[in-house]
Design a protein that fits this description.
Length: about 350
């Protein structure tokens, strides 16, 4: 449900509503996202959280976010000053709990269906496109009406709410559906449900933004036309996918590095230090020093770590005995040889 407010008013008279609807909304979100194994579309959840936080303005956000009056969509101010804050942020502002509740309930239902069917990246791309298209088309419609009839009713109107995007999502969701829906006792083909809802909301809920809702429907139709006209992924989807990969790359690299370290053990130089092991446990292509347990290449007869001779070769044993190596090396001697070996 969309809403508009006339110039100078902070709240719409028809949208001041019940208190305590936010806990009901939170319960609905928990019921959809809570069951084990249920789909948990992250983009839909992020959009719900963003709209709720903008409305509640907790803590430091209250000072960071512009006020409702500063962020409201106003064609005259946007065109005159190029005010992008009003153009983009107005969609995330709501007039009351009732306004927020109905829009977020609609977003929860439509978002889960669309994101589950098309994937999170494409869904995020679609929402961004619908946001820009619906706001842009609404701006052009209000300007066009001003030029045609010199009527400033729509051109000076203030409006907020996510309903333009929601109408676009409804058009996309029902585009290829052959089902029928019940709308206030009427049976209507799903593909025309958005148009019927546009008329009924305007008739029964005064003060809503007719151009905002109409802009959302036209944005959905433009999005579908663009999707059919161009083969392959759209540039915005590619951009979102690329940014996601770049952001997640350091995390994936750290995970691979951690798994590699855990599987290989502690590496030192060209060999590694391990526990004392039998010949059966020693990996092929190396021999393990019986004194310091350093793994050495088969190409050498002397331990690279402590300079102790390899014991399984006659030449090494003779050299070892000639050097008085029949006595087991002390810890201090091993340390001295290692320092001498590496020049430290």
């Amino acid at each position: 449900m969309g809403s508009g407010m006339s110039s100078g008013r902070r709240r719409g008279s028809g949208l001041e509503g019940s208190r305590g609807l936010l806990p009901v909304l939170a319960l609905q979100v928990l019921l959809e996202y809570g069951p084990a194994g249920a789909a948990r579309p992250p983009v839909t959840a992020a959009l719900l959280a963003a709209n709720a936080l903008v409305y509640l303005r907790p803590g430091a956000l209250d000072g960071l976010l512009p006020s409702l009056q500063r962020a409201s969509f106003n064609p005259h101010l946007i065109m005159k000053y190029g005010d992008l804050t009003r153009f983009f942020l107005s969609a995330f502002y709501h007039l009351s709990e009732t306004h927020l509740f109905y829009n977020m309930t609609s977003l929860l239902w439509k978002g889960i269906q669309l994101e589950t069917s098309m994937g999170s990246t494409k869904f995020a791309s679609m929402v961004a496109a619908l946001l820009g298209l619906s706001q842009g088309i609404t701006l052009l419609l209000s300007k066009g009406l001003l030029l045609l009839g010199d009527d400033t009713t729509y051109y000076d109107q203030y409006a907020v709410g996510f309903s333009g995007v929601l109408f676009g999502m409804k058009v996309v969701l029902n585009a290829w559906s052959d089902d029928f829906v019940y709308l206030h006792g009427m049976v209507i083909p799903s593909k025309y449900a958005a148009w019927a809802e546009l008329v009924l909301i305007q008739a029964f809920i005064p003060g809503t933004s007719f151009l905002g809702h109409l802009g959302g429907i036209l944005a959905g139709l433009v999005y579908l036309w663009l999707e059919r006209s161009f083969n392959g992924p759209d540039p915005l989807s590619l951009l979102i996918s690329s940014v996601t990969k770049v952001v997640s790359w350091p995390v994936k690299f750290a995970q691979r590095l951690l798994r590699s370290v855990r599987s290989q053990g502690h590496i030192t130089g060209r060999g590694r230090v391990g526990r004392r092991a039998s010949a059966r446990e020693t990996p092929q292509g190396i021999w393990r020093c019986s004194t310091c347990t350093y793994d050495n290449s088969l190409a050498t007869d002397v331990c690279e770590m402590c300079s102790n001779a390899r014991e399984d070769r006659a030449f090494s044993r003779r050299q070892h005995h000639q050097a008085g190596g029949n006595v087991e090396l002390s810890v201090e001697e091993i340390r001295r040889r290692r320092l001498q070996r590496f020049g430290r």
